Amino acid sequence: MSVDKTATEVERAYDDKHDVINDKYAHEETLNQMKQEATHANVDEKKLLLKTDLHVVPILFLLFLCAFIDRINIGNARIQGLEKDLKMKGVDYNIALFTFFILYILLEVPSNIILKKMRPSIFLSSIMLCWGIVTIGQGCTQSFGGLVGCRVIIGALEAGFFPGSVYLISMFYKRHELQWRINLFFSASIIAGAFSGLLAYAIAHMDGVAGYGGWRWIFIIEGLATVVIAAASYFLVPDWPETAKFYTEEERAFWIRRLALDNEDTSMSHWDKKTARRVFGDIKIYLGTAMYMGIVTTGYSGSFFTPTILKQLGWTSIRAQVMSIPIFIVATVLALSAALLSDRIKHRFGFIIFGCCVATTGYAILLNMHHVAVGVRYFAVFLIVGGGYIAQPITLVWLNNNLGGHYKRGVGAAMQVGIGNIGGIIASNIFLQSEAPTYPTGFGTALGMIWLCVISACLFLVYLMYENKARDQGKRDWRYEEPEHERKNMGDDYPSFRFTY
To answer: Which ranges form a coiled coil (predicted)?
Structure first.
């Protein structure tokens, strides 16, 4: 096969090859032929990998940074007078937090199905532009009801961004190249915690400008930045590998072959009733969702309540904003280090358990905070946030690594993030003002959710080991005898697919 064939010709050649795959031996022969074609391609793989990295990860990192700042800046606004000016009382703040997640959860799966049929550059930039405008509206609202309305709309618009971005990134990389890239992308949400505190510290000094309180300027300025960046992102966000403009035709053909080799025969290119059963009947997706729900509760608790928790240590609002910054910087370093090591040794499970154990230690300290000094309590917050962010992005990639096919990856990512974000609703309602500063309900519930993650990860591992053993013993080889259109739409149910731990 000539290396200068277009991507369409390459895909057609794959389809022709799949037509003759009637058993596992023919399948292995086809893969060997594809490997030889990739080997003889006149493309520098390392340079092309770097080129892909530069065009895919940085822009999505920047967009996610904006998205997460717009999601969590309510925590910074709170200690700058939000509740007082909008006459909020009791659990009003908790209500404002969890209403964000109502449409956010419900629209995750539909959004990823829409994304599959659209150019990511159009879809992602459009929803971002809209939520930036609504974020500005948060700074202008004059009532608690207005604030809640804005939060609901932002949640609906952001629903398609995170799972869509994870899905898009996963389509460009091999399975054991993915963790590092996802963590680089995901680290935007961690850095957002530090950056949000830094911005809030600076913007808080605008209190009184044009008659607006400092908390209003936090929403207005950060929303304006999102609008500007969203407009520019239309020209920068990549589309699918088959259509991404930064590849030459030769590079595109090589890259598609490379990805096909890594995923073997895991295509899932059309949606029908059997596809739906393969997706919605896959226990891996539900265990992955439980893992994510357990750990994301800690992620949101840290983002929403760290400024409040630190203020309860006896610090001023301004100092609490500043002291939150090192926590998220350390968490970023830990998350990226775990990602690099995880990809290098091609292992996920152990890192999830380690991160959960680190966070557990932090919660244990804060549940006994009256027996330790303020400095130790501050260190405990480092453990909680750092441990949570070691594990959280790895749960996303571990599930993605073990799903095959366009539709299964897209819907699986959306279900994991969408349903899993029930953890955000939980986090929004467990830190009760009446329990300050000890927050036993908050810390105790979050600790319990950490161990939901641990138990789910263990069950996920056992299932993967069981399935790999069954396939090694030939117990799934009967699937080679399925009709051709079924074989070409099995995704990770294809007998040659092996799960990764």
So the answer is: none
